[in-house]
Fold these 3 entries.
Entry 1:
Amino acid sequence: MSHETGATMNISPLPQGQPEVCPPPPGGGGGGGGAPGGRAKEPTFLDRWQELEWDDIGLQIRAKTAADVARALSAPRRTLADFMALISPAAEAYLPQMAAEAERLTRQRFGNTISFYVPLYLSNLCANDCTYCGFSMSNRLKRKTLTVEEIERECLAIKARGFDSVLLVTGEHEHKVGLAYFREVMPIIRRHFSTVGMEVQPLSQAEYAELKTLGLDAVMVYQETYHAPTYARHHLRGNKRDIAWRLATPDRLGRAGIDKIGLGALIGLSSDWRADSYFVAEHLSWLERHHWQSRYSLSFPRLRPCTGGLEPAVVMSDRQLAQLICAWRLFSPTLDLSLSTRESATFRNGAVRLGITQMSAESRTQPGGYAEGDAEELEQFAIHDDRPVGEVAAAVRQAGLQPVFKDWEPFLGR
């Protein structure tokens, strides 16, 4: 499903104040770089991103009025201009109406269910220097990459907790936890779980296509921020400095036939969470038009304490996060909305009625955390909701919803 663009944009060769982007690193597979054999470059979201003006978008969002919000709420199908209105300061007074409509749309599409997943951290090795991440190469952190035997123990420990959907997470280190490592471990992990996703360094289209043959179902690739000066300020060394390569990653995923693609911005990294959220909406709209065969999911992580200790550029309140969740549901009734253990138990208990369809529980953000127990010196960030999975599931049931741990059988195919 695509969304019409209703906002008026000032068009320029590059976003205001944004430096020229460098070409993607080599690695084959297309998607954002020059095509081999002289063929025309395939379009990516980078093309649309270069047309958008960050400051202008921020001004447009703040110029939205109560009348704009009322029009968006009454629209049978919301446009990007409506999304602007729904995330604007003017919409804060309409949160009860937004919440009621978000819940109606969610129940209509997804029923009375909340799907559960858990992250499985394979390695905290990283070749990037990022100011906000505990895995950053500049942090004095004990490093660990799980062996085949350790992965087997982690899988068994996760299965014992009842999970059947797992998200594989690593730091970005292409030599030590790159495709060769994934080739080795994916078949082992796939034997244990019916759904396997990944949140690792951006790969080429050909690499994603190969991982799909090994059982990969979903890939989450968060842009962190769409504001190029902020992106450059927080990504100091490593391949992650290349904003163009990262921006084009979801396009490569779509061309590789990955079933589900996850998007999101790290709230608090830039000084304007509303503008970043609008850029995510533009990104989603682009992908749904160009790669309609894939499904999409969205997360809205807020900065959490970690080794290195970056303070958020802006603090988003719980009420504002609730507004954002509702705005996303109204904008895209078919979108999976995921809420992790970064958020508090109290907030998560309430948010399940706002439009959330997926939750993690009892998460460990360090390699070996499930079988070996907590080891804070290895973790990426501190979680906020540390309840056991049974307690989280009980809270979901108390809200009148059904926790779902398995919703797919691999033999059915994708």
Entry 2:
Amino acid sequence: MTQLNSKSIKTILQEALSKDGDILKEMVRMLLQEIMEEERDQQVGVLSHKRDNTKRRANRNGYKSRSFNTRVGRLLLAKPQIREFAFQTQLFENYQRSEKALLASICQMATQGVSTNRVKKIVGELSPDLIYSKSTVSRITQELDPQIKRWQEEQLKAYYIYLFTDAVYFYVRVNHQVISCPVLVTIGVDKNGHRKILGIDIAFEESYQSYLNHFEKIKEKGVKKVDLTISDDHKGLIKAQQEVFPHTPHQRCICHFMRNVLSYVPYKEKAKLADYLKQIFNSPSREMAATIAKMIAQEYQTSYHKVSQMLEEELEFTLTYLAYPTHHQRKIRTTNLIEGVINKDLKQRSKVVGIFPNQESCLRYVCLRLMEIDEEWQTGRRYMKITKEDQNLEQNDPLLCEIKQMKERVKTQEELVAI
């Protein structure tokens, strides 16, 4: 940067001392102004009021006001102008770098779920003279939208083994009313066992149409084949899934199913019935699970008819997982991949915000956080072991397989006796 000579500094100091107000702030302003004046002299080629056309490269063209945030406060400077080309100053280049660092911090706070009001307060505490209003902070975070859009529109693989879908709810202000809006989330597990966030959409309600739009976007991004879909029993969701990915088996989340069944008994009966239901889903085969379910249904036939009815009519859709590899079953029989990991993370952070000002800000927050999670999944360890070399040797050893099956039969018989 241009160095000021001792005479300039002495003059500036004397002028600053002669004025009322904040002496340090005025001195810094005058120093910065003098720096820009000397920078313009160098770029023009001659000093002000000098006529030397042999050295002159351009002509001065007045000033343009420019505010400048510093540690001593907000300064109002007169930025010199040059007629033939743009005036260049290292002063504002350094300022732009520091400003970008602050803006990056603001964006990071938005990602962490910090509300715009709190961001404004934090920035104000860092420097009281920095003027970042609530609307300015919101505008800064909106600058992340192109990055989010690229991530949402990136092409996906054509084949995923498992597809998990669920919705997480947030409070959003719409037309001066606070409503609970669902954010639809779908995660896929590819043939290598890695997780990938395939789609995120916000809607006014969970409906067939909202899920249809959600799955069609995923298909447009390249997904053509899925071996199994996992979700709760939302009729619109299942219908949309079957329409976009026809002839794909579906697994109803057993946690949702158990909660539905338990809702038909009083509190004092819930623990016992929950233990019974666990025996169904710990069974090694579909046949054994159906047998246990029939016994439980008979037990509750007279006292709680709704429990028996659900076990007889709806259990079949919760046992699809038993047709898949044993080492996958515990992970594909529920939507805990979404509920236990993503929902918990998003909900915890969103408590700071409370109520989102609109759907766009809510979706922006969700996408920013899920982008980070998605990157961790892509670079981290696999969620499932898929390839043959990853399997345990005992699965290919006939003797070990027979011993394991025998132990499972004994365990199941003991559980039946306990019932």
Entry 3:
Amino acid sequence: MTTVYMFNQYASYPGVPGSTRHYNLARELVRQGIGVYIFSSNFSHMLKNRIRDVDGPYMIEEVDGVSYVRMNTFGYFHNNWRRVLNMADYARKSYSIAKDLARKGIVPDVVMGTVAHPFSVGSAHFTAKRLGARFFIDIGDLWPEVFVTSGKMTERHPVYVTVGKTMTYFYGKAEKIICLTDEARNYFKSRGYGDKTILLPPGIRLNGSPPCAPAPASGGSFRVVYAGSFQPIYPLDTVIKAARMLKDRGRDDVRFMLVGGGVQTESLKSLAGDIGADNVEFIPPMPKGELLEFLKTASAFVLIEKKASYGFPNKIIDYLSSGAPIIYASPVRHAILESGSCVEAPHDEAEGMADAILRVSSMSPEERNEMAECGTRFLKENHDIELLAGRLIEHIRRPAQAGAIQTPGALRREVPK
């Protein structure tokens, strides 16, 4: 059996809060005959605590045929030096555990490193080199560009320069670079890596008929839902101020549900309290299964972000599969805007956000249902995980490209020529 190692420190699955992009992909790869091992930390970035009781260096947890390799890593509560140490700890341990699995006969054909941060990519690269496997990079975020787009530093900062050189080295060593968007793919083409790129946006397994737009909640309220991280790149202060404006306009029926957590949780709660936005409710992160059920109660969703670093908002998939219009507030021109499922709003102007919400709330259930059906068609055409996994499998099973295999290591195994 062809075997793939996926290195993603933050990979989750439906029973645990967090991103399930790799779970969805890995589950479909397994269905199509590929063995998948996901190397992830046992420390949850969202919950800031341990997920499982890991007795020993690591444990292997089977979830729908996917093998999660869980390891304890250094804990942290804020984005400071402790989190950097956590990343380095993950890289060191994942590399060591991968060698141990190989000694037990579980040797990868492909090692995929996700750019949640460069440490995971580095661990994946050196694991592939050591085990004689092919090395793929999966672009979750574009480092170090994410530092600039988030406003944390300039392109002259020593950290930016150092990380940039490091990632350029890894890009050169990778056989394939998996991109989530056309924008990311064009970026790598402009840097001379066009022949390496694979366009592979997040996907879900589609079944059943399109969901209908939900009826208003009890009491006739119109529920506006945001689900995601509370980080500076997602300007939720705009949403909270818009909520207060709608209250001033006499729209007490419009309620806001902000689901998630992050470094701005307390400051956003303080803002809501200070301006009297008591129509905003903060809800802690939920496991994906619970979240998807909750999203079905929404009347509309909010997707809001500043300029992103060539990534893909995973919440788009969750929103489109839940059957309600999306209020799209982002300078990024995503293909979803052509689907008919969105109403645009400014990400940095509360009054414009309030106007967009009023527009959607004034629609009839039939009009909102039509938008939901447009979203479902967009999902089927662009995010069917069965088709996306098949696209990746074509590259996994294809003979390695010249120059892709690294210097032989002690545990090198033969790779098809």
